[in-house]
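Chain A, query sequence.
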Amino acid sequence: MKSKSRVEATKSSTRRQFLAAGSLAVGGAAAFAASGDALAAQPAGSENLPPNVPEWMKQPGADTGTEPYGQPSKFEKSIVRTLKKDTQQQTSSQSYTPLQDIDGIIVPNGLFYERHHGGVPEIDPAQHRLMIHGLVERPTVFTMEDIKRYPSESRIHFLECAGNPPYTKIYAKTAGELVGLASCCEWTGVPLKTVLEDVWLKPEAKWVIAEGADGAALTRSIPIEKCLEDAMLVYSQNGERLRPAQGYPLRVLLPGFEGNMNVKWLRRLHVTNEPIYSREETSRYTDLMPDGKARKFTFMMEAKSIITRPSGTHTIQPGFNEITGLAWTGRGKVAKVDVSTDGGKTWQVAKLQEPVLTRAFTRFRLPWTWDGKPTTIISRVTDETGYVQPSFEQLKDVRGVNGQYHNNATWPWKVAETGEVTNAHVQA
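Chain A, predicted structure.
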């Protein structure tokens, strides 16, 4: 019989220590409960602790009919998005998902990030129309009921803002404040290919210009290849109709492409033979390189990962701690996530939690026994194409610091001797 490897032996030892510690804790609790002196010494407000019968067991609970639309527990009221004010409009134009508080890969609708350029319009779906025209044989104006008559699909995909985060704002405290302009959910709608085939594209069709019905009339050019690959016309999110801030009643979904291309409040698709070069794809959302030239288009969101627990503002204890986080890539599936607990000197392969889906959040986990000494923890994702997430220094070497979009660098967290976790990027 072969002997265990050092790694296996260490894992077994760690597990035994953890289970032993848990047994001691349970045993200690039992002894505590059995001691009259100990019970008498419990702090004020502990009347609901064992062995007492808690107050909520002594009377019927609330009627389910009191909340027509279900709400989270009042004890979870601190789990909310971070709102950011627009410095010019003095209004909130974006909100960040609290990634450090999310379990699994699905972000609830009430915590899904927002980004809009001209406020959130209030649109009556009965009066909303989608016009498809240009290089098509059958220009058509669709009602929402027309769209919903097509065969539907439901798919899980992430959505991420191109400025998540900007190069100049990498000093946020929490994981959500840092890269919370990204979320993942189940989308329901119609494949865009189905609708475009129904209006008969002309051979010279190369681009589709999508326009939103918001005050900014946000307009983006979409390559016809993407429209015919996996693009969707979406009307539902996580099982309910889109919320107003997410494009109600209709939006484009372009899995893996930068967020602003997924045009919300969709009112028009103009099929052309060239891009429109709108404001949002020329003066904004382009990458200014070190030589002063800008990359023409950067559609794909590259591979990214971040440890969400423990992360900024968390405090941990020496001993066992699970490291967990999220990884995603616009190129397809996550293939591997490496985690370093010594500032990048060595790396361990984390476990990927199923399901591992195309262009969706993937949860990763790594058991870790912290020795109580100061250190830095980092994650690094490799996607199925072999692309490896760069460090911030590696990214700057290639792209410089003139731009502010498409920052997919690794994000290190510093763990102090006290157990306090902070952003390892220190502003000079």
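DSSP finds seven helices and 24 strands in the chain. The longest strand covers residues 182-191.
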